[in-house]
From TrEMBL:
Residue ranges of coiled coil: none
Top-level taxon in the UniProt lineage: Eukaryota
Keywords: Electron transport, Membrane, Mitochondrion, Mitochondrion inner membrane, Respiratory chain, Transmembrane, Transmembrane helix, Transport
Membrane-topology annotation of the record: Single-pass membrane protein
Short name of any one Pfam family annotated for the protein: NDUF_B4
Organism for this UniProt entry: Vanrija albida
Places the protein is found: Mitochondrion inner membrane
Electron transport recorded as keyword: yes
Residue intervals passing through the bilayer: 35-53
Protein name (Swiss-Prot/TrEMBL): NADH dehydrogenase [ubiquinone] 1 beta subcomplex subunit 4
Length: 82
């Protein structure tokens, strides 16, 4: 029952690198793209979408068949077929 686990030095090296990644980090072209995309473009996209749809819809007290738009377009005037 006394089975021993084999020790893998590659796992130790990987764990040490993972724990100390901040000491060896360098801004490369790829890292810079990721920081810009996740740190700037993603939040700006979320902000732009929320700014467009802010106050566009009104969900409170709507009846079945009524428009969810806060300012619905005016109904088209009825045309006579005469």
């Amino acid at each position: 029952m006394g089975g021993h686990l084999r020790h893998d030095p590659a796992l130790d090296r990987w764990a040490a690198m993972r724990e100390n990644v901040y000491q060896h980090f360098k801004f490369t072209r790829t890292a810079t793209r990721q920081v810009v995309a996740l740190g700037l473009l993603f939040p700006l996209t979320i902000y732009a979408v929320s700014a467009v749809y802010d106050n566009k819809y009104d969900w409170a007290g709507k009846l079945k068949g009524s428009s969810l738009l806060r300012n619905p377009p005016a109904p088209a005037p009825a045309q006579d077929d005469e």
